[in-house]
């Protein structure tokens, strides 16, 4: 009996185990991104009663009160994010880059975030979010951003495993 045979068999089984774990991870990520088991909208702290009535992601361009969001202390509140405590607040003053890189104003410790993943900025009297051609995309209310979109109170921003709620007083 050759002494390399048991090592060879162990390596084959180890490779198969890693391959199956990778496939399970891919399926889990795809299901989450495609909306399988669509999560219910929840408010700050997971309480569904705190979700504003207009937090549908569908807003009229002339909706009363939404035109002055930039002048009402806009901020992102951490719902869940690796390396951040839930409830942490980030004030949105000027242009804010979210990402893993050193040049990001909101630094994400998320392996699914790009170095410069998304940009939030004021345009006139509204606050806009834009994906910066990230690898894994930016989601606004569980919808993949294709173009810059305005943010409204109650909107959810998701980058990888990091999720934020947009608020404005």
Overall description:
There is one protein chain. The chain has 169 residues and is an alpha+beta fold. 18% of the residues lie in helices and 25% in strands. It is built from one helix and eleven strands. It has a six-stranded antiparallel beta sheet, with no helix packed on it. The longest helix is centred in the first third of the chain and has 31 residues, at 4-34. The protein is elongated. The termini are far apart.
Task: Name its key features.
alpha+beta, single chain, 1 helix, 169 residues, 6-stranded antiparallel sheet, elongated, 11 strands
What helical percentage do the residues reach? 10-25%
- Run of helices and strands: HEEEEEEEEEEE
| Main sheet characteristics | 6 strands, antiparallel
Helix/strand/pairing category = alpha+beta
Low-confidence stretches: 36-54, 59-67
Number of strands: 11
Residue share in β-strands: 25-35%
Using only C-alpha atoms, the radius of gyration works out to 20 Å
User: Biggest sheet: strands side by side, in what order?
Assistant: 2-1-11-10-7-8
User: What does the average pLDDT come to?
Assistant: 81
Oligomer: single chain
* Shape type: elongated
Distance between the termini: 75 Å
Q: Count the helices. How many?
A: 1
List the helices and strands and how they pair.
Elements: H1 4-34, E1 75-80, E2 89-91, E3 96-99, E4 106-107, E5 118-123, E6 126-131, E7 139-140, E8 143-144, E9 149-150, E10 156-159, E11 162-167
Parallel strand pairs: 3-4
Antiparallel strand pairs: 1-2, 1-11, 3-5, 5-6, 6-9, 7-8, 7-10, 10-11
């Amino acid at each position: 009996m050759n002494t390399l045979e048991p090592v060879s068999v162990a390596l084959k089984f180890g490779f198969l185990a890693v391959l199956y774990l990778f496939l399970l991870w891919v399926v889990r990520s795809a299901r989450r991104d495609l909306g399988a088991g669509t999560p219910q909208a929840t408010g700050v702290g997971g309480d569904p009663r705190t979700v504003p009535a207009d937090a549908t992601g569908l807003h009229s361009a002339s909706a009363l009160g939404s035109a002055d969001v930039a002048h009402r202390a806009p901020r992102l509140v951490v719902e869940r994010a690796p390396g951040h405590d839930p409830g942490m607040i980030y004030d949105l003053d000027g242009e804010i880059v979210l990402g893993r890189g050193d040049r990001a104003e909101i630094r994400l410790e998320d392996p699914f975030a790009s170095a410069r993943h998304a940009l939030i900025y004021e345009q006139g009297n509204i606050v806009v979010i834009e994906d910066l051609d990230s690898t894994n995309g930016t989601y606004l209310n569980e919808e993949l951003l294709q173009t810059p979109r305005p943010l409204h109170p109650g909107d959810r921003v998701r980058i990888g495993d990091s999720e934020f709620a947009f608020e404005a007083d």
